[in-house]
User: Fold these one by one.
Assistant:
Number 1:
Amino acid sequence: MNFLKQVATYLHRAYAGDLHRFCIVFPNVRAGLFFRKYLASSTDRTPVFRSLESLMEEVSGLTQADNLSLIFDLFQAFKLHKTTGESFDDFYFWGEMLLEDFDDVDKNLTDARDLFRNVSDLKEIDAAFDYMTNDQKEVIRRFWQNFNVGAGGMLKTEFSAIWQLLYPIYETFKQRLKAKSLGYGGMIQREAVDLIREHSLCEKYVFIGFNALTRCESLFFDTLQKQNRAIFFWDYDDYYIENDWHEAGKFMRENIQKFPSEKNFHISTRNLENPAKHIEIISVPSVTGQAKLAAQLLETILTHDEDDLDLNRVAVVLPDEYLLLPVLSSLPASARDINITMGYPFTCTPANSFFERLSALQQRVRPYADGARFYHDDVIMLLHHPYIQEIIPDEANSIIKSIVEYNRIYVCAAELAKHELLQLIFMQCTNARDFSQYLLDIFSKIITIYETLNLKPETLNFKPETLNLELETCHSALQRIHDVLATDGINMELRVFSRLLRKNFASLKIPFVGEPLKGLQLMGMLETRALGFDHVIIMSMNEGIFPGKSVKQSFMPYNLRKGFGLPTTEQRDSISAYHFYRLIQRSTDIRLIYNSAATDHNTGEMSRFLSQLIYEPIFNAQQRNTTFSVNHERAKPIVKERTDDVRRILNMYLSETDDRKWLSPSAINNYLDCRLKFYFRYIEGLKEKDEVTDEVDYSVFGKLLHRTMEQIYKPYLNTEITPEILTKLQYNKQSIQDALYRAFAKDYFYTEHVADSDITGRNIIIREVLLKYIMRILEVDKNIAPFTILSLEKRLNVSVPINNEGYSTHINMSGFVDRIDQTHNGLRIIDYKTGNAQRSFSGIADLFDRNKTGNHAVMQTLLYACMVSILRESRVGEGLPSSELYIMKNLFKDDFDPRINISRKPPINNYFDVADEFEKELNQLLSEMFLSDVPFTQTENSKRCQNCAYVNICRR
């Protein structure tokens, strides 16, 4: 029989006729629900049920205030005594710590005046603290002796100044709260202790299943005991009670001696030593792997004992609440009835993620003369949120498309106001109160829209009841915070207010709807207090998770806490130990799972409690390791044959119809790199996803240079350019910068005009580098002048003849040539290169050999020369064409020469010197591409796959 049922049976037997005059008190509400069930089966005389927290509120006449109200009230008290003008922003980060310290002071009935005394004369200690033991006084003496040694540094001085103010702050703070009939946990307990003598709610109080008591709770119990109004029932095992070294029994040993149970109550207290107890410790090398393993264990339990299994005697305990979702999604189908006691963390809901995105939006907004502008990432993240995608998908996706298409880094509010909800979202908040109202308005609007839209459940990403709960929970919390802000008149930075909201939301839970006394119990560790189960699965049994990290931030130094008997690390560890051992003491089947994988947040170390089970002789704990079998199969080669559909697309490059396709030099280079890459890009039409670029990347850098040079030389098109003209251009730096800014406007910002203020961050460096390159190009051109520019960024469309085994046809080839000059030596075909290009190559045949490195830049400029030579009859220019590369990284060399050359040979001045060999190789390549049956296969050179856009498809 479990503990609660035994207590219920005893109370019914001993006090059946008087139970309606009793108040039965538990450490938590959950235990009371189970106890009520057991008692109801024996009697209809119903007692009063309370948790100790609610009972103390009732006795004290004070209501527990929420943390937000407490921190604001504490700040008001702080300002009355610390008049140096600290803002709430400065106060908040240590004000939270002070709240916890005051709570400890009151719960442990510490004399706050003595605690916050600055002891400069050590002789005061014996006189002032005569109620303490010698050991306590020695600890306090040691602290002040060490603190007062040596010169007083700035930190010591500041600590002393604040320390002396803490008692007046503490008193003022409590007075403010009491005037409003509010309190914090410790204050309520202290008040209840003073008033319990006169409290007459019930004739007797029955306290069941408690462990660690604060001094207030202990005195509360003691007062009722002396009035013969208290009955106590303790749940423990002799193993940790009789062994003084065992931390699980630290508090219980004191409790059962000071507040003994009734003599007639007998309960088994030797359960941990039961040889039939099955304990298994299992390691799993992942977080979600624990959830999968727990599901397998549950399936075994449920199917093995299917006939006589009481599901509410099976518990899955989650010390880490963030495992709740993985566990829920992994539960076996046989677990039909589930009772979730923990509540779903609000931080895991879409409502919380929506708040986070709104917060990020407001913290990066920029004010402009024409209104607020919002950062593109924040805008896109918000518009992708499920709420927005369900309410206004068309408007949201239209805005996203426009931002990406035009590379909008910061977007004007006016451009985003395409719906009344978006009008509310995309406005700037300047302070916390504005932001509070802003959030309230947005969540109110979303609630209203969902109510009026009456969307069908199957069209929603969430269940309607869940959606309503999370939105209403969020709205209620925001309304409370807004009311507090308005009442106390406190303002703060948005950053601090967001952190305050985040902390508040972290404590919110969305309750699950269900029958609490029916089905599999899915619980947090604290909900297990006083409850017992036959089958227990405890997850996340890792050091640092259970027990959790014991370090607690406090304004009070450790020695003072210890000297005044305030809680320390050791006590918190003992509480965790009791929860663990008490939970498993009556269970017959115990599975303990821990994550063995070391990560940033987990050491992979098993809990110390597991080590104790392994090494303590009374336990027979079995261990096993669960590992993942990872079979890394080599990716299968991908081969695309030339089907009728593929040939139809390829034939469009041979066609002269309106829907014909044009082959670019880049496409030829892609085919040489990898036939399959060409297939994906030009046959299937798979393109890389467009994204907004915050800073100028390599491709945009090249566009800016090309566009600026076009702007600079455009007025001189078909005009002879002399050294004098180029010198004037160099001196007119403002004109050059204007041309560069026009390029920024067109190719980066996609706007009509760009000012100095728009070029920010790393882009300032990009601007200066571009200006340096441009000036150097003008200097290089001055050394070649005079020349006449025949075309700038001109598209050439050429029909290139090919022959294959007697069959002749033409390929549609097209490309943009950066610049074509006419000089006294002939034509110069110029290509600007901002990347890692080389003008030297090993030979024409090697350019077409896909097994060799190749040279894309040389291939491209030779293809342009070939195309120009075909068009010579169309009066593109006179003279022999020469292919030249303006490679930016080589531009500043004294011996800079733009002409291409075969390794260790003179530069090629005339395309026709290599034309025969080049066009022969080109003919063979184009024939293979368009007239052969060669399939599209992957390259053998895996290095080419590293930066390929299709690497995830090929799984290389």
Number 2:
Amino acid sequence: MIKIIYKIKDIKLTPLEEKSENELLLKYLKDKYDLKPSKMLIHRKSLDARKHDIVWVYTLIVESDKIIQDENVSEYIENAQPQKLKSYKDEKIIIVGSGPAGLFCALKLAENGKKSIILERGKPIPERIKDINLLKEKGILNTESNVVFGEGGAGTYSDGKLTARSLRHENEWFYNKLIQFGAKESIKYEAKPHIGTDCLANIIINVRNELLNLGCEIYYSQKVIDFEIKDNTIKGVLTESGEKFDADKVILATGHSARDVFIKLHEKGIGMAKKGFAVGVRAEHPAELIRNIQYGKSIYKDILPAAEYVLTHKNKKTGRGVYSFCMCPGGEIVNSSCEPKMLCINGMSKSNRDGKFSNAAIVVTVNPDDIQGGILEAIEFQRDIERKAFLDGNNFAAPAQRISSFLGGINKTLPESSYRPQIYFQEMKELFPEFIIDELKSALKVFNNKMRGYCSEYAVLIGVETKTSSPIRILRDENRQSVSLQGLFPIGEGSGYSGGIVSSAIDGIITAEVILYI
């Protein structure tokens, strides 16, 4: 008998019922469709908290020989998997950077017979953690080993959110690899999957071990400072330690904080362009306050996950956008600096998201036309804000101001914060151009209307968030090579082609497939 695969959507369970989801979903199928599927998988699971009538909403994939006709049921066609790629060309491949783009590019290449050499300017995770803690506890910065540089890249010490989804086979491959190396199975179907910084570190170590088993070489504390070029073709890279690595192809996956790489590429005449980015602050609230705003008086409030939010506002007069970014429920604010006497911050949370505070970047869009001068002026725009935020001699204390004070009050006191080593009072208007301040004030008032209590006296703005994405794009052609230099493949967030863990990894995976076809 022919088996039919169905997608069944809009199945709802209360938060209490969610604890027995498998049993109750099977019961729903039996009661609603008289269906006992030979196979059932959760395809998607999301929390609907609109109007505080809180339910979990499921979409299932089921297999059955029964004919079903219903508005919530459709036939499901699985994505065709590509044939395994094979490349027999013997060539040397260098990957610069071991963030999501670099690591998963290397993994895709290695699984198809192409070994690579990975050069990482920072340290492996165990040593990197020590440097991060030293910055957190004593304000001592290692410019090459910190929240943005080191094994796993900046993504390892972010919130671990997997926010980009598509039907491409690369996405499915990536999610399966994360599960293989230690992530929960549920990331494949959760609407907002989250791994957590604590789990991400172990996953990255497992990816590293797999690459080594497949014959790749990985070198840490190898900062690439120059590129060897001949006849408009890349021939290798030079590192700060004085070593030279020959290469037929160089995959550039350096991340958005590697500003020295942009400067070197500009010196070499490599084609680049300005791109839009965003700057702003971190808004931090007690996690319980956000929970109360989002879940209201729901009887399920205490068993629901840490509350999240997404806020956006477009100023009709200026056309400029303000939005929340990288919301970290039950998380903490961390120092993401990597240059002397400059301060910038980010947010992260662990897998259980049970911290006292919740935070999110609240950022204002900066358009290419806002930056006067050449390509590198966008970097200087960011640096100027970071210099103003750095309080010389105070070990990376972060400037902060209550939202109520920012919107017009005179209160100079500060609430408790998750940021370490400490925060200090500073008016935000002293740190940013006037147009950023004006847009933040306008948007925060709108956000408070959307989330009553958001601008509470318990809420604090902490500065500065400047690295939401790269302000520069390294131009590449349809084969993902630099338009200026044959054999150079710029990928990931630092090259201006992604934003976040998933999209960066996918950009690396697709580039690997292109290389395997060439």
